[in-house]
């Protein structure tokens, strides 16, 4: 189940961002705040099972700065491109990688393999919190 390794990587990256901010290396001003919501953009071709990822995320957060945080996922539609026809199309699931015009294989995937932290919502006890969209989006890379 690679969803657990993804969840652990997300938790590590958010904790690293908080740690860097507390050490003065970032500009977000997160001192004393805790993340209460993490939003991931996940491409439909990334091979991630959202329900499994939600389950793993809750386990990965236990005992960390993110304990109790919610995970939201935004799905990114798979899109392919045929260079000879200059046609772009949604791949769907299971993916249709044949050009709808000429029938040849897709020259490339334009979208659908994303797996990135889109935003983290930080809160202070008794406060509404604030949403941080870091200039450098964290990209989760599988090992």
TrEMBL record:
It comes from Streptacidiphilus fuscans. This is Hydrogenase maturation factor HypA. It comes from the Bacteria. InterPro entries: HypA/HybF. The keyword Hydrolase does not apply. The lineage of its organism: Bacteria, Bacillati, Actinomycetota, Actinomycetes, Kitasatosporales. The keyword Aminoacyl-tRNA synthetase does not apply. One of its GO terms (molecular function) is nickel cation binding. Involved in the maturation of [NiFe] hydrogenases. Required for nickel insertion into the metal center of the hydrogenase.
């Amino acid at each position: 189940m690679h969803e657990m390794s993804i969840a652990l990587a997300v938790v590590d990256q958010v904790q690293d961002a908080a740690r860097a901010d507390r050490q003065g290396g970032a500009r977000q001003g997160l001192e004393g705040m805790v993340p209460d919501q993490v939003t991931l953009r996940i491409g439909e071709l990334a091979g991630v099972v959202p329900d499994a990822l939600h389950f793993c995320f809750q386990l990965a957060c236990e005992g960390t700065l993110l304990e109790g945080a919610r995970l939201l996922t935004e799905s990114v539609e798979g899109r392919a491109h045929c260079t000879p026809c200059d046609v772009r199309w949604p791949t769907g699931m299971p993916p249709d990688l044949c050009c709808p015009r000429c029938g040849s294989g897709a020259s490339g995937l334009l979208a659908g393999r994303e797996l990135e932290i889109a935003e983290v919502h930080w809160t202070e006890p008794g406060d509404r919190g604030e949403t941080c969209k870091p200039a450098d989006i964290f990209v989760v890379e599988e090992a």
